[in-house]
What we know:
CATH superfamily of the largest domain: Ribonuclease H-like superfamily/Ribonuclease H
CATH class of the largest domain: Alpha Beta
Mean pLDDT: 86
Number of helices: 20
Strand order of the largest sheet: 3-2-1-4-7
CATH topology of the largest domain: Nucleotidyltransferase, domain 5
Oligomer: single chain
CATH architecture of the largest domain: 2-Layer Sandwich
Amino acid sequence: MKVSQWAEIRRLVEVEKLSQRAVALQLGCCHRTVARALRMDHPPDEKRRAPRGSVLDPYKSKIDALLARYPQLSAARVMEEIRRGPDGYTGQLTLVRIYLRQIRPRRGRVYQEVEYEPGQAMQIDWGHCGQIRIGNTQRKVSVFVAVLCYSRLCYIEFTLSQRKAEFYRAIVNALTFFGGSPRRIIFDNLKAAVLNGSGRSACLHPEFLALCGHFCLEPIACERRDPESKGTVEAGVRYVKRNALAGREDELVSWDDYQQLAVTWRDEVANVRLHHTTRQRPVDRFTQESSILRPLPRFAFDTDEIVPAIVSSHARVHFDGNRYSVPPRLQNANVFIRANATQVQILADGEAAASHVRSYDRNQRISLPEHRLEALKLRSRVRAHDIEDAFDSLGDEARKFHLELRRQPVKTTVHLRRLLNLVHLYGRRDVVAAIARANQWLTFDAAYVETILLQERRRRELPSPTQVRPRRQELLEETDLEEPDPADYDRLTHTEEETDHE
């Protein structure tokens, strides 16, 4: 009997003064039901019903005996045993599993809440945040989250990879944001931190140990498949995905949008909210922890990625899916690539041979104009289109001059070659400025550009530049020089006083 039916029967009898027969006819139920409802002083309990029988009931005693001898016996093996004989079990495996779940003791893990002291520990972890298109490449977006365990102050940083250099750089940025380092750092089995093993038996990466030693951090590795041991940062990663990223697909169009979101959401939402565990704002609780943190070292920790490379025959090196130009003189040489978040440097013999803006696109050829000019200079025979490409790489003014020069009744390659020679002699900046003035005065001729350069140097009272050596080697060999006389040096070193004394 339902509570609604019991209540309606009582109302019709007590208020409407209907007979039991009339109530049964009106509600369409049996008169015995009406009589039983009137005898009940309390509403019926719909949840308490008489247990229904099951086809498994005759076999439950046998199942209990089996589990007493073999506690870890699986449901499939139990069903196999109770099916034996002519009167064996004929039901489904689901009933067996439900019964085993009821009688077996629960093996769930019991968690203990951990209380952290100020400045005691920091937890770090990665999280996957979908993808973004950069240029022609679809890149995965990850978020690095670091949380101080006492104050719950968090630091987040979006990255395009989880490489070792990105991991170390994010840790340094987090410690810089906190303004100090705690005593411990708690992390998962990341390849950048753990070479093999886990927990207390983990073998840590030497470079990660160097980072911990620099900031005086005690590394604590979690056991494998045990994310609950760093539940504070796990909750932080979920909070980033559900609060910072959820519903912002239309806003996060470019990579700069992710970088801006990391700062604004961290400072205006995450660290000023009322934390559900501490019941305080992280920024307020951090005031009690900031003075406990260990001051950062005076010397910065080097987080740049340094990898060896061999310069190809095209004077390029490969890094992160792209090819960067190198001075042609380093062709087939062994160099080192030093990369940070924004820059890629090529080091040769301990010195920077080239520096490029880092590209996060893929399959790109990134070259500097001076490298192209040097490569053309080394060629024994330069093709016309190579000269045009080298000249166009000087900038927009050079391309405008080139376009107008093609409309003139002159041989374009001769003028462009002469202008490229002026770049070697006067420098790129002065030549581009002279080309811009030639464009302004609608005079498209290499000789006129050279005249502008000479006039500018005279205005600045600078001498006219000359070639260090003749263009052709035979001219150098035909140059005759007189044999030096040592007496000339003695005469030059004598002063006037010495001469008067003599």
